[in-house]
Structures are given as structure tokens and as C-alpha cells.
Write a structure and sequence with these properties.
Rossmann fold, 4 domains, four-stranded antiparallel beta sheet, 14 helices, about 45% helix, flat, binds guanosine-5'-triphosphate, binds magnesium ion
């Protein structure tokens, strides 16, 4: 149900219908209201009566419901009501398989529910005798429980986040470049990961198939690249969801390069809207990495359509590559483009001590950098091409010199 078809474009309703089906609902009727929203029930009383006549288990609203509206509808009509955010949370809950995803979904649900429970407490107090001071109602106890549980989950997720940060740092030190697939839900991120890395993570025609990230290596001759698939974005993604998924979204925030995947076969208006939503979500996550826009599902369009679609979104699609994960078209070009857009490796001349530790670090350097020349003497002189942060760490470890700046930095790539 929604409030005004002239304000909310029908594609928003298509998406809501799709979300409802994905959550397992069987749709009995769709009711819209043209005049503005009603304070008491969000829709007018007549519309709710009309909906109730279908004897639904649940009323699903497009617009966010206030705690008061949920309370009023339940009290007066005895029907369960949810809004779009609830619906998204229900889908997330049904797809969460890892411990991390389950905690994230629970945190999002509790963050969403907390104000409702707080409002229930005040609504109940209002309906009680004036001057009455209840000592610890059921809702109050529940609110205490919610706050406690939220604090516990936040602490657990902080731990997960720290582990993730440490893992990504280790990978960068070992010479890997981290590339993240981001984008609107159902755009084809998992399919792209599967094709490029010969993986078989779940990819289905439904929203939010992926909740937990998967990382796989891309085989290239030039660089050691790891590609990570992530949770999809959706229009009007509430900030509390983004905050709950911080440990997962860190894969995007800390990536060296982000591949923003969109479904080029969406009609132009929807395509633009989804791109805007993605840019907003990336901004909210705090992602500033360089970006390639991957215009996927090109197999569904003619040559001319591809050109005109690309033109229509060029202001929103920096650094575009047209691909089709279904046919494999453009994927090699995409990998070339990734290699060109990764932060450049630099060339350094460094010296390691001729000690056991120096030899250990040298063999490590063989794994993580491109060794161009090695001269053995009292000191081991090495000319190499690699990541500045990695070289700095090796030098710190052997204690030759503490700052990379003092080293002979030859030239950027
Ligand atoms: N025709 C066509 N379909 C594709 C292409 N790429 C992906 N699909 C289909 O699009 C649907 C969604 O693909 P996924 O890879 O699950 O999309 P996703 O972005 O990972 O989606 P979520 O994880 O749900 O956010 C699946 O049915 C895929 O088979 C493509 O290039 N062409
Ligand atoms: Mg996916």
C-alpha cells in the first residue's frame, strides 16, 4: 500500500511487490491512496477497511509507519502491519546463514524496533490513569532487554570488524590488491564473481541473495588480485541497516578499487535511480576508493540500446565497462581495466642486512613483490617493484632504516 501514486513512481511499487514475493507473501490486493497520508493509520480508514475485506494476514505499507500508526491499526483492526523496512529485514533474516550475518540482521531489527517499544511504553502510559506511575511494565522490561542485547551484538560485531581489518591488512602486506563488487541488489555481482573466478556462489533472480562476502583470487600475470562479492544496495537504504552491516561493508570501504555493478537492461529512469541509490549508499559507507562502473546484462540489449543507455547515465557512471556475465562479453576487458586502475606499484632500491632475518625478509619479498635485481654482499641490495606500505613494513621489520622516505625511491610505475 502506498500513499500517492503521483509521488511514488510505479517502479517503486514493482520493487515492493517483488520484495513481498521474495519474502514469501502471496499478494491478495494492492491499494493506493491519492490524497496525502493520514496521521492515524497512514491511509484513510476507508482504505484500511477495503484492505481488511480481503482478510489478509499482513498489511504491507510502502511508506515508513510510525509506532503510533502500527499501534492504531493493530488495535482497531487486529491485522499485523509492516512497512518496507520490515519487509527488507524479513528477507535478510531468511537469507542470513553466517554468524556475522545473523548478528547484523538482529542488530538492524532491534535498532528498528527499539523506538517502537519506547513508543508503546508512552502510549500505554497515556491510556492509563492520569498521575499513575507504573513500576516496570512488560514493555519497559523488553526495552531494557533490547538495549542490553544491542550493546552485546555491537561489541561482538566490533570484534568481527577488527578481525576483518587485520585480515585485509595482512593480505595487502602479502601483495594482494583488494577489489570489491558493489551495487544494487540483483545487478549480477555474484554472477560476475562466479564467472571471473570459476566460483559457484549463489546467484538468483531475487533481491538480497548475497548477505555475506565471498573473496576469491583473480588470476592475472601482472598483479595478485582478490575479488570480493558483497551485499546489495536498495533504494532508500536506511542508515541503520548500513550501520548494522558495517563489518561486511568494510570490504568495500577498504578496497583498493570498487566495481559498481548495475543492470544496464533496466529502463533508463530506473537505471539512473538505482545508480543514485548506489552512490548515496557508497557515500554513507564512507567509500572513497577509485571506481569502475560495470554495466552488466548487455546481452539483453541491442547495440543501439547499449549506446543510448550508456549516454543516458554517463554522468552517473564513471569509468564504464559494458559486460554480460551471462555470455562472458567484456569480462576480459573488465580485468584489463581493473589492472589499469589499481593503485600503481612503485619501484624501490632497498638494502637488507645479510643476516638470517634479512634472508627471511628477502624470501618474503619474493612472494609479495616483483624483484628486479638482487645483489648479495655484506648487505643485500634489492631493486623491486611493489606496494609502498608493504616495502615500508619489511624495512621496519629488519630495522635497517625506519622510514621509507630515506630509501632510494626510484620512480612511480
Ligand atoms: N541476462 C543476464 N542475466 C544475468 C546477467 N548477470 C546476472 N544475471 C542474472 O541476474 C540475476 C541476479 O544475479 P546475481 O548474481 O544473484 O545478482 P547479485 O547482484 O549478486 O544480487 P544480490 O546478491 O541478490 O544482491 C540472476 O538470475 C542472474 O542469472 C547477465 O549478464 N545477463
Ligand atoms: Mg549476490
Amino acid at each position: 500500500m502506498r500513499e500517492d501514486p503521483h509521488r511514488k513512481r510505479p517502479e517503486s511499487i514493482d520493487e515492493l511487490r517483488n520484495l513481498a514475493r521474495s519474502a514469501g507473501y502471496n499478494i491478495l490486493a494492492e491499494i493506493t491512496q491519492i490524497r496525502g497520508r493520514d496521521r492515524r493509520f497512514q491511509l484513510g480508514r476507508g482504505k484500511i477497511i477495503q484492505a481488511a475485506a480481503h482478510e489478509p494476514d499482513t498489511l504491507i505499507f510502502y511508506n515508513p509507519l510510525s509506532p503510533g500508526q502500527v499501534y492504531n491499526i493493530k488495535k482497531e483492526f487486529g491485522i499485523r502491519v509492516i512497512d518496507r523496512f520490515n519487509l527488507i529485514l524479513e528477507i535478510f533474516a531468511s537469507r542470513a546463514t553466517t554468524r556475522e550475518a545473523k548478528l547484523q540482521v538482529e542488530l538492524a531489527r532491534l535498532t528498528y524496533e527499539a523506538p517502537f517499544v519506547r513508543a508503546m511504553i508512552s502510549l500505554r502510559k497515556l491510556s492509563e490513569r492520569p498521575g499513575y506511575r507504573g513500576t516496570g511494565s512488560y514493555e519497559e522490561a523488553m526495552y531494557q532487554d533490547i538495549s542490553g542485547r544491542m550493546a552485546k551484538i555491537r561489541a561482538d560485531l566490533k570484534g568481527v570488524e577488527k578481525q576483518g581489518d587485520a585480515r585485509r591488512l595482512r593480505l595487502k602486506d602479502r601483495g594482494f590488491d583488494l577489489v570489491a563488487l558493489a551495487g544494487y541488489t540483483n545487478a549480477g555481482k555474484s554472477t560476475i564473481l562466479n564467472v571471473i573466478t570459476s566460483e559457484s556462489v549463489a546467484a538468483e533472480d531475487q533481491p538480497f541473495t548475497t548477505l555475506s562476502p565471498t573473496t576469491r583470487a583473480i588470476r592475472t600475470k601482472k598483479r595478485k588480485v582478490l575479488l570480493t562479492d558483497t551485499v546489495g544496495f536498495i533504494d532508500d537504504l536506511p542508515l541503520f541497516l548500513i550501520n548494522s552491516f558495517r563489518s561486511t561493508l568494510a570490504e568495500i570501504v577498504q578496497a583498493d578499487l570498487v566495481l559498481l555493478v548495475v543492470d544496464l537492461s533496466d529502463p533508463p529512469g530506473i537505471l539512473r535511480k538505482k545508480l543514485v541509490s548506489c552512490h548515496d549508499a557508497l557515500w554513507d559507507c564512507g567509500s572513497y576508493a577509485p571506481m569502475i562502473t560495470v554495466l552488466n546484462k548487455a546481452d539483453r540489449l541491442t547495440k543501439d540500446e547499449i549506446i543510448s543507455r550508456q549516454k543516458e547515465v554517463q554522468d552517473l557512471a564513471p569509468n564504464p565497462v559494458v559486460v554480460s556475465a551471462a555470455t562472458g562479453r567484456g569480462l576480459e576487458e573488465l580485468i584489463d581495466h581493473v589492472l589499469e586502475n589499481l593503485p600503481p606499484l612503485e619501484e624501490f632500491e632497498i638494502e637488507l642486512p645479510g643476516t638470517e632475518e634479512g634472508m627471511n625478509q628477502l624470501s618474503r619479498l619474493y612472494e609479495v613483490a616483483d624483484l628486479l635485481e638482487v645483489k648479495y654482499g655484506e648487505m643485500i641490495a634489492v631493486r623491486l617493484r611493489g606496494r609502498r606500505s608493504m616495502v615500508a613494513r619489511v624495512l621496519k621489520r629488519v630495522g635497517t632504516r625506519d622510514a621509507l622516505e630515506k630509501q632510494n625511491h626510484v620512480r612511480p610505475d
